[in-house]
Each structure stands twice: as structure tokens, then as C-alpha cells.
Write a structure and sequence with these properties.
Layout lengths: L4 E4 L5 E6 L5 E6 L5 E5 L4 E6 L27 E2 L21 E2 L15 E8 L2 H6 L4 E9 L5 E9 L5 E7 L2 E3 L6 E4 L5 E4 L5 E4 L11 E5 L5 E6 L4 E8 L3 E6 L1 H7 L11 E15 L4 E12 H15 L8
Antiparallel strand pairs: 1-2, 2-3, 3-4, 4-5, 6-11, 7-8, 8-9, 9-10, 10-21, 11-20, 12-20, 13-17, 14-15, 14-16, 16-19, 17-18, 18-21, 19-20
Protein name: glucose-6-phosphate 1-epimerase
EC number: 5.1.3.15
Enzyme class: isomerase
């Protein structure tokens, strides 16, 4: 696999642009401690996130297709301009199936946010093909960053360059790799209302002190706090999920029956994955001409003991927004 370009943003953090086995460009980010992220230009999709020990943190199906226009089953697909089904658009929108471009002259990182961090900016713009099914001109900039601490950050900026307003829904469809779905719990969604896609989007209220899994789950939790946690008891580690501009959280696991009906998903793979998506679903985002929307997702991994001690403090401090520099 040959390198086509190397760019260094500071003395230790670098990005490389290589080609995958299908000949499609992918960007590899590394930090000084050995953590890494891979981002495919097919869909602007994060396909791998590894910690400093080389352990994969995102799920990708062994049956996933990496050939356009088929979307990649796993990683973090970017779902835009819709998440779900719509008669005129493919499921979860077209952004995840398009070839993005690398911005060769991205704006710099904020000085307080730049130490040991590598990043790449990808661009997707309207083409005649998209305009036929979604007749609005837009510019979508996606920044993917890998921090010195191994944390993964995605910042999406969608600008309306159209002559009239448009609305869209959005999700970072995040496939987390877990040891055993039956031993996983989500904290931070308790007492919230959710729409259950398995019950014709009927509205319910979460009754448990955490979300656990023993059957298929497909829910949209509404008006969520900006920090939630996914605890993997077997690995004794916790995914911390922070989000901004994304009021909702989608939780999905297909379980056994649906897994067997999906051609790009292994029959038993539901046991080792969980989608927990920062999303804007219930109330679509509307942009007037010239307006821009920003949605940010930050993922980090901590020991579960650390999470139990600090989770409530972090959640309360960010519940109503934060001062994180975008």
C-alpha cells in the first residue's frame, strides 16, 4: 500500500493519505502515543479507530462492502440529508455513498486545541446528480480529529448556498465494538422520552435506570443530555459520548432475526456491536440562504471505574451546552 501524500500538523501528529484495497483514497491519522483513525473518502466515513494498544474500538461487519456506491456497514457513516427512509432519497441519505474530497487548505485548529492533534477536513458539495433527488445547493465540511489522548472528534458544518431555505435531518451512525451486547448498558438516557421504530414510532418514556439489551432495539431518544456513557462490563471500559448541536440519540441493535436478513451483516455479529448515534431527528434543522449549522461528536474511552466516579459531574457540566471551541 503506497503513500500518496504525507502532511505534518505539528512535530508528532501526522496524517497520511493512502489507498485501500479497492483503490479508494483513505486518510490515516495518528497521534504520538500510537492511536489511529482511518477515514475513507467513500462517504467521508471513519472506518477504524484504534487506541494506543492497537485495539479496534469501532465495529465493522466482516461482510461489509467497501465498493461504491454501496455504503460501508460499520464505522461511523455520516447520514445526511436524512436519517431513515424517504421516497425520493436512499435510506439514511446520500452523503455516505458519495466520494468526498480532501480540503488542501483547511482552517487551522484553535490554539488551545492543537497540541498533539492530527486532523483532516473533507468536503462534499452539491452535484447535478444530488440536485435531481434533493434540489438544494449545499457545502458540507467534515473535520475528523484524533487527539493526543486518543479521543476521536467529528465536526460537521453544513452551509446553505441555495437561494431558498432547506431542512434536513442528520446522524453520526456510530457502530461501537462491544464484547457482549447482553453485558452492555447505556447511562444518561434514563427518564427520557423516545420514539420506538419497532412500534410505529410510538412515544414511550424510558423506565430503567440504564438502557440494557435482551432483544432488538431501534429507538430515537429525544432532547438528550450532551454527555452519555456506554459501559462494557466484560472489557471494564466505557465509551464517553459528548455531542453538540445534536439533540437526539439513536440506539440500535438488530438482534438475531434481523441480522440474518441483512446481506452485509453476519448472523451472529449483533452480539458485538451497538449503534449509539448523536442525531438531529425529531425536529429537522432548517437553514436560510447563507446560514450554517454545526454538529459535533466526541468519543473517548475510559476505565469503567473512572466513568462511575466522574460521569455525573461531566454530564451536568455539559447538559445545557458547553464552551468547547469549534
Amino acid at each position: 500500500m503506497g503513500h500518496t501524500a504525507v502532511a505534518v500538523w505539528d512535530h508528532k501528529a501526522a496524517i497520511e493519505i493512502t489507498k485501500d484495497w479497492n483503490g479508494i483514497d483513505q486518510v490515516v491519522l495518528r497521534n504520538p502515543h500510537g492511536a489511529s483513525v482511518k477515514v475513507s473518502l467513500h462517504g467521508g466515513q471513519v472506518t477504524s479507530w484504534r487506541n494506543e494498544h492497537g485495539e479496534e474500538l469501532l465495529f465493522t461487519s466482516s461482510k461489509a462492502s467497501f465498493k461504491p456506491p454501496k455504503a460501508i456497514r460499520g464505522g461511523i457513516p455520516v447520514c445526511f440529508p436524512q436519517f431513515g427512509n424517504c421516497a425520493s432519497l436512499e435510506q439514511h441519505g446520500f452523503a455516505k455513498n458519495k466520494i468526498w474530497t480532501v480540503d488542501e487548505n483547511p482552517p487551522p485548529l484553535h490554539p488551545n486545541d492543537s497540541h498533539g492533534k492530527s486532523f483532516v477536513d473533507l468536503l462534499l458539495k452539491s452535484t447535478e446528480e444530488e440536485l435531481k433527488c434533493w434540489p438544494y445547493s449545499f457545502e458540507f465540511r467534515l473535520r475528523v480529529s484524533l487527539g493526543a489522548d486518543g479521543g476521536l472528534s467529528l465536526i460537521s458544518r453544513v452551509r446553505n448556498i441555495n437561494g431558498k431555505p432547506f431542512s434536513f435531518s442528520f446522524a453520526y451512525h456510530t457502530y461501537l465494538l462491544v464484547s457482549d451486547i447482553s453485558e452492555v448498558r447505556i447511562e444518561g438516557l434514563e427518564t427520557l422520552d423516545y420514539l420506538d421504530n419497532l412500534c410505529k414510532k410510538e412515544r414511550f418514556t424510558e423506565q430503567g435506570d440504564a438502557v440494557t439489551f435482551e432483544s432488538e432495539v431501534d429507538r430515537v431518544y429525544l432532547h438528550c443530555p450532551n454527555v452519555i456513557a456506554v459501559l462494557d462490563h466484560e472489557r471494564k471500559r466505557t465509551y464517553m459520548i459528548r455531542k453538540e448541536g445534536l439533540p437526539d440519540v439513536v440506539v440500535w441493535n438488530p438482534w438475531e432475526k434481523k441480522s440474518k436478513s441483512m446481506v452485509d451483516f453476519g448472523d451472529e455479529e449483533y452480539k458485538h456491536m451497538l449503534c449509539v448515534d448523536g442525531a438531529a431527528m425529531e425536529k429537522p434543522i432548517t437553514l436560510k440562504p447563507g446560514e450554517e449549522w454545526t454538529g459535533r461528536l466526541e468519543l473517548s474511552v475510559v476505565p469503567s471505574s473512572f466513568c462511575i466516579e466522574h460521569f455525573e459531574i461531566q454530564r451536568k457540566s455539559l447538559r445545557y451546552g458547553s464552551n468547547v471551541q469549534l
